[in-house]
Design goal:
Elements lengths: L1 H5 L21 H4 L20 H14 L20 H7 L2 H4 L11 H18 L3 E3 L5 H18 L7 E5 L5 H8 L3 E5 L9 H7 L4 E6 L12 H10 L3 E6 L11 H4 L3 E4 L1 H4 L14 E3 L11 E5 L2 E5 L16 H37 L15 E4 L10 H10 L6 E2 L8 E4 L7 H20 L2 H4 L12 H6 L21
Helix pairs in contact: 4-13, 6-13, 7-8, 13-15
Amino acid sequence: MASESNAKSIFEKSRKGQRAYSLPKSDSEFDRFQPASDLLRKTEIPLPEVSELDLMRHFSSLAKKTIGIDTHFYPLGSCTMKYNPRVNEQVASMPGFSKCHPLAPDETVQGNLEVADNLIRGLCELSGMTAGTLAPNAGAQGELTGVLMIRAYHRKRGDFHRTEMLIPDNAHGTNPATAAMAGFKIVSLKTDSQGNLDPDHLQEAISERTAGLMMTNPNTLGLFDVNIAKASALLHKHGALLYYDGANLNAIMNIVKPGEMGFDVMHLNLHKTFSTPHGGGGPGSAPVLCNEKLAPFLPVPRIVYKDGKYTTSSDFPDSIGRISTFQGNFAVCVRAYMYYLLHGNYGLRSVSEAAVLNANYLKKKISAIVTIPFPRFCMHEFVISTEKYLADGIKAYDIAKRILDYGCHSPTVYFPLIVKECMLIEPTETESKEMLDEFAGILENIVGEIKSDPDILRGAPHTLSVARLDEARAVKCPIFRHSAANENPSIQGEFYE
């Protein structure tokens, strides 16, 4: 009976007259601020009516069904779903940060501007850049900021003929979308047999029309591209620039810097590498960092320190303008600054070393039961292929769904696109050897099931609230609210329509 009750929606649990609150019958102070009658609703909002206890149990039940980093192993490749230290949350919730209004005069928020400026300086040191901004609210917006800066740089020089952006075929999907949004034609570059950018194809593709190259290193195969120095020299020789997608920075902190690799501008996903809870749409933050030749084109407002005080200024004539409002997701920046201070340079390097160690250990552990397309030493993540199990009628998608039944989130599937029936696995540095061994054991069990009972994979998951959904339709036609049409046709209207 309890499990049946937990399966019901909060609307189905509603009973007339139940309340989870108690308000005074009259409050003269509140009554003074009643809105005008023409602003009042004409009908009541059909909210569910439940007791406080039932409401608490409802949300507790939902929490138990959630798969998150605090409750499950979460090896979601390319996303860096690491544990988020609670001290960061505590600091970000301090009133001086959480209650600060974005329109507050600069002189009243000197401490917050100092935190933002210090974070920019620290990230510049970490990445080998000289200037930056915290304005972008997500990785893709950070990409757009950097690409628009590249475009502004070329236009300032009168190079209006540079209309092409080179992008490797193993790049994040947002890269070509971002470049296209900025008005560039996309030129795709091949990956060679070792998982590197194909230098011969790069040589063929580059021309006087090339504005830049967008890539990340390590790339989305989890491999460090050994041709990066040659690629950088070739691009700069032809007057083009390099953009660094910082989604994979978790593998190289204080080991190698993007600026030293030759990149001119980059974004960094604070919500990945610098440990802010994310997923389901946010929150995100993607500071953009650049070298001196691109600094004039950074978005405004920028933080300026002069005569012992901080100000925000838009007095930068070559700027691309505003990319978002104010200084981005400031609470995420506070968490990142705390993470940066607690670890220090040595600690950040240790983070990356542990992430690389964990990935290589797990890859070796499961190499006997899956295909490793690129067997060389990986960085923080690695790609496997389950193509050999197609002969048994099992796809990577089936294995991913079955993993959920064992209490783990599945890895990224079918990305990058250049590997057939692939999974991209990123264990992160926060997982123990015991957890990695357990996950390897889960994969071994599933491989055994492929041979003994493949139907159990085709029907997975079996233990969750829902089985397989029409994911394509769910993306295009998401349902975010309960429909009471079948329960009580009289309570429709503008609340539902």
